[in-house]
From TrEMBL:
CDD domains associated with the record: NUDIX_MutT_NudA_like (cd03425), TMP_TenI (cd00564)
Nudix hydrolase domain span: 8-144
Alphabetized GO MF terms: 8-oxo-7,8-dihydrodeoxyguanosine triphosphate pyrophosphatase activity; 8-oxo-7,8-dihydroguanosine triphosphate pyrophosphatase activity; 8-oxo-dGDP phosphatase activity; 8-oxo-GDP phosphatase activity; metal ion binding
Cofactor: Mg(2+)
Reactions catalysed according to its record: 8-oxo-dGTP + H2O = 8-oxo-dGMP + diphosphate + H(+); 8-oxo-GTP + H2O = 8-oxo-GMP + diphosphate + H(+)
Uppermost EC category: hydrolase
Entries under PANTHER family matching the protein: 8-OXO-DGTP DIPHOSPHATASE, NUDIX HYDROLASE FAMILY PROTEIN
Keywords: DNA damage, DNA repair, DNA replication, Hydrolase, Magnesium, Metal-binding, Mutator protein
Annotated protein name in UniProt: 8-oxo-dGTP diphosphatase
Length: 329
């Protein structure tokens, strides 16, 4: 979201995904709507309506102070989901809140629960959830790093060695993208990659080949720009992502029902020296208001994660940088 005042036509809501780190991993907070509100008893992300003249961020800070008694220190803009209830159409402006001051207090008598948020398992252990929130949990389960394969350059053996190392270090989502590899080699690499990734609880997206995803039991497809332009329906696979460069492509990805998108190139890249790139400000304008998580791609390193969150990204996607040389053991 931008920090501009918001349109009064639909009910604008600021909602917080509070994230805390524990010994068992990251957790997020759900709150139960108090008895005197519509949808009483349903579980939701803390937050509330944006008041006239407020930005979503200002409303977020006010709501968390009023509802939970905390002072927000760090809030990253995340996805924006519109949902029509019988009583109103709401636009939920989500922020991931990672730092705050003060202890949580239920100022409106509401119950709280902290839920685990390990990769691909941000499920709610409470019910009922507000109906708008199910896709939000799915989005929340996406890990912060999306790695793109580089096997043609590294060679298959070396790529698989580095993949195993990355998986051991926590990589949970990767795309096999080997445009110049002969089909039979790609197939055999895909089989080995999927087996290795699944043994570590990680997901594998295949670039462009929907049939191969189904045949080999990969987790999803990363649609090419051409597929994104031509498909009329979201392919029936577990995860579907799109590669985007413009606002039009992002809209198309949302309309098609993609689960997430790549937006590139953010910075100059080794593979396309001198080619135009978005820069972080344009990235932020394009990502603002998107209903699906966006990974920033192009010229980035792991150190750019926080910068990407500040500009509305869910996380970063890395190609060469995802496969550092590391140890040879
Ligand atoms: N806070 C919050 N609201 C949500 C979520 N999901 C969702 O659909 N909503 C909807 O967004 C709207 C938020 O309104 P609210 O009643 O919480 O707002 P508020 O705190 O300003 O309440 P008030 O108008 O009673 O003062 C409701 O229609 C609610 O159903 C969510 O995760 N968190």
């Amino acid at each position: 979201m931008t920090d501009q005042p918001l349109s009064p036509k639909i009910v604008e809501v600021a909602a917080a995904v509070l994230v805390r780190n524990t010994a068992a991993g990251e957790e997020f907070l759900l709150a139960q709507r108090p008895a005197d509100k519509i949808w009483a008893g349903f579980w939701e992300f803390p937050g509330g309506k944006v008041e006239s003249g407020e930005t979503a961020r200002v409303a977020l800070v006010r709501e968390l102070r009023e509802e939970l008694g905390i002072a927000v220190q760090t809030a990253f803009p995340w996805i924006v989901r519109q949902f029509t209830y019988p009583h109103a159409t709401v636009r939920l402006n989500f922020f991931r809140v990672t730092a705050w001051q003060g202890e949580l207090h239920p100022h409106e008598g509401q119950q709280f629960v902290w839920q685990p948020i390990s990769a691909f398992s941000a499920v709610a252990h409470v019910s009922p959830l507000l109906p708008a929130n199910a896709p939000v949990l799915r989005a929340l389960s996406l890990p912060p790093l999306y790695a793109i394969s580089n096997a043609s350059e590294l060679g298959e053996c070396e790529f698989l060695r580095r993949l195993e190392q990355a998986l051991d270090q926590g990589l949970r989502l990767l795309q096999l993208r080997e445009k110049s590899m002969p089909q039979d080699e790609l197939r055999s690499l895909a089989i080995r990659t999927i087996a290795l990734a699944h043994a570590h609880g990680a997901k594998v997206m295949l670039n462009g080949d929907i049939e191969l995803v189904r045949e080999l039991g990969a987790d999803g497809v990363q649609l090419t720009g051409t597929q994104l332009a031509q498909l009329n329906e979201r392919p029936d696979v577990e995860w579907c992502a799109a590669s985007c460069h413009t606002a039009e492509e992002l809209r198309r990805a949302e309309v098609l029902g993609c689960d997430f998108a790549l937006l590139s190139p953010v910075l100059p890249t080794l593979s396309h020296p001198g080619a135009p790139h978005l820069g972080w400000d344009s990235f932020a304008s394009l990502a603002a208001g998107c209903s699906i998580p966006i990974y920033a791609l192009g010229g980035l390193t792991l150190k750019d994660s926080e910068t990407s969150w500040q500009h509305g990204a869910h996380g970063i996607a890395l190609l060469r940088q995802a496969w550092p040389e590391g140890s040879s053991n």
